[in-house]
Design a protein that fits this description.
Keywords: Kinase, Thiamine biosynthesis, Transferase. This protein is α/β, with parallel strands linked by helices and 518 residues long. Helices cover 53% and strands 11% of the residues. It has helices at 25-35, 63-74, 90-103, 128-135, 145-152, 160-174, 220-235, 238-254, 272-276, 295-303, 305-313, 315-322, 327-354, 358-386, 410-420, 428-454, 464-470, 473-490, 494-517; strands at 11-16, 39-44, 47-50, 55-59, 81-84, 108-110, 140-141, 177-181, 189-198, 201-210. It is elongated. The structure holds adenosine-5'-triphosphate (ATP) and (4-amino-2-methylpyrimidin-5-yl)methyl dihydrogen phosphate. Residues 16-19, 24-25, 48, 50, 85-86, 113, 116-118, 122, 218-219, 221-222 line the site of (4-amino-2-methylpyrimidin-5-yl)methyl dihydrogen phosphate.
Length: 518
């Protein structure tokens, strides 16, 4: 253990075994390190043939080769923290111990992996003493309840108080901080506690989270310990690191079911938070529009080329792009758009209600929320900044709901009637197909027009914020998803395909009319 070093993007080494399904072990560590803002490196202790159901076999390369891997890293790279996971055998534990003594990394987190959640042993019994031998030299140990008990040579704690007591005794015996993890306890909470020796006594910090109802918890221990190592190297505080890591893990657990990896205990969703906030790279570069997802959407998209060309040629759209559009005209357009978005969000919520899969249900629900929150926010800001000026009607105090007190124009009403269903189908699958077709142009035509308009955007453009939203990578990412869902719907039966295609074509026309009314 050397001195603490804090870095924006710390260099974190994981020393652990493998999980070819990517949920636990070194693969999970690398994802967790990246998701928490670190640069991840990996030295493999053991190759494990395992999946979400359990461990099939373990191959341990010679200890001398492990040392070569460790030296290859530390001879070259300055390490900000090390996370140690599965060691497997006494020889491996001793080799890692010798390397630690030579290199003395500034922070070491040891996850004392003994038994996988499937019940398979990942540490030979005769290696437990060698593992204990490492405890004196590390900064934080993160045992689950059975591991905590095994390290002390006792029976697993049956309650949280007993677990905390064991944690204090382990921390005292080895003069190291212990993270006591309550993931294995029954109950509505998933409590954890950081037990830190402080010159004779202990400081105990508890972090409790709501237990997530999911069977997909494979690798939570691996992921948490590498997140903590990374966040410690970014903050220099175990308490801050734990708090942030728990919040991150919670989001990863809450969305774990969406991954659908394996049929046993699947992995957590390491990047869920980043993806949700739109930070995943896109299959398209922003500014080029969103491509079709397959043959069916390609065909449908090409059929609307004529109307899209007309949209691009509209005075309103050209004026929006080059900034010459009259602000009073834009203000009136925004007012109608605010009314439209309220109804559009209802159509998206209805699509969520009818969605056949969890992912689609969530996607439409989030899109509905996005339409209400992000877009109305933009409306409010613009109306607030411009109301009473340049002929823009309305008071300077824009109500929380920018659509309040406004009457829909004929085009807005017509488009919303189309979306919300004067021609609803009784059959849910058919109605879903119609809705997906109907809501898509507001994603796709906008992302397409947005990409084109954004080309002329600049810092002092009067509609800069507006153009930014529609050329936003997160909006393009959502559009990619939506187009993918449409492709799936078009692959349904003849009736579903026709309903989606007709609704799509009508909505493209409504998009045209909406801009034209502006
Ligand atoms: N269902 C859950 N909901 C919320 N948090 C959970 C849940 N299961 C585990 N956790 C949290 O995940 C972390 C790991 O806890 P756990 O006690 O399961 O460790 P572990 O057994 O080492 O993990 P692993 O599943 O990798 O073996 C802890 O922070 C714990 O509170
Ligand atoms: C290589 C490796 N390291 C650790 C675990 C523990 O994770 P879990 O208890 O979730 O199976 C594992 N299964 N594989």
């Amino acid at each position: 253990m050397g001195g603490v070093s804090v870095r924006d993007v710390p260099r974190i080494l994981s020393i652990a075994g493998t999980d070819p399904t990517g949920g636990a072990g070194i693969q999970a560590d690398l994802k967790s390190i990246a998701a928490n803002g670190g640069y991840g490196m990996a030295v493999v202790t053991a190759l494990v043939a395992q999946n979400t159901h359990g461990v099939r076999s373990v191959h341990t390369p010679p200890a001398a080769f492990l040392r070569e891997q460790l030296d290859a890293v530390s001879d070259d790279v300055v390490l900000d923290a090390v996370k140690i996971g599965m060691l497997g055998s006494a020889g491996v534990a001793r080799t890692v111990g010798a390397w630690l003594a030579d290199v003395r990394p500034p922070a070491v987190v040891l996850d004392p992996v003994m038994v996988a959640s499937s019940g398979d042993r990942l540490l030979s019994r005769d290696a437990e003493d060698a593992l204990r031998g490492l405890l004196h030299g590390v900064d934080l140990v993160t045992p689950n309840l059975p591991e905590l008990a095994a390290l002390l040579g006792e029976e697993p704690a049956r309650g949280w108080e007993q677990a905390l007591d064991q944690g204090r005794r382990l921390a005292g015996a080895y003069d190291t901080a212990v993270l006591v993890k309550g993931g294995h306890l029954a109950g509505a909470a998933a409590p954890d506690a950081l037990v830190m020796p402080d010159g004779g006594g202990f400081t105990v910090c508890e972090f409790s989270s709501v237990r997530v109802e999911t069977k997909n918890t494979h690798g939570t221990g691996c992921s948490l310990s590498s997140a903590v190592a990374t966040l410690f190297a970014r903050t220099g505080s175990w308490v801050a690191a734990l708090g942030a890591a728990k919040a991150w893990l919670q989001e990863a657990l809450e969305t774990a079911d969406l991954l659908e990896v394996g049929t046993g205990h699947g992995p957590v969703n390491h990047f869920a938070g980043l993806w949700r906030r739109g930070l995943a790279p896109l299959p398209v570069s922003s500014g080029t529009g969103v491509p079709p997802a397959g043959d069916r959407t390609a065909e449908l998209w090409s059929r609307t080329a004529g109307v899209r060309k007309e949209i691009a040629a509209l005075d309103f759209v050209r004026g929006l792009g080059d900034g010459t559009l009259d602000s009073a005209v834009f203000g009136r357009y925004l007012a109608q758009d605010a009314i439209y978005l309220r109804g559009y969000a209802r159509a998206l919520a209805r699509a969520s209600e009818l969605a056949p899969t969890l992912q689609e249900q969530l996607f439409w629900a989030e899109s509905a929320r996005g339409a209400l929150e992000a877009e109305l926010e933009l409306h409010r800001n613009w109306l607030h900044a411009n109301a009473g000026h340049g002929g823009v009607p309305g008071p300077r105090d824009v109500p929380a709901d920018p659509a309040e007190g406004l009457a829909p124009g004929p085009v807005t009403r017509g488009y919303l009637d189309h979306l919300l269903g004067t021609n609803r189908h009784r059959d849910d699958r058919l109605e879903y197909a119609r809705l997906v077709g109907a809501v898509l142009p507001c994603f796709w035509v906008y992302a397409d027009a947005g990409a084109e308009l954004a080309a002329g955007n600049h810092a002092s453009h009067p509609y800069r914020e507006w153009l930014d939203t529609y050329a936003d990578p997160a909006f393009a990412a959502a559009t990619v998803r939506a187009v993918g869902i449409l492709e799936g719907v078009l692959a349904g039966n003849e009736n579903q395909r026709r309903a989606a295609e007709e609704a799509f074509a009508q909505s493209v026309q409504w998009e045209h009319d909406f801009f034209a009314a502006g």
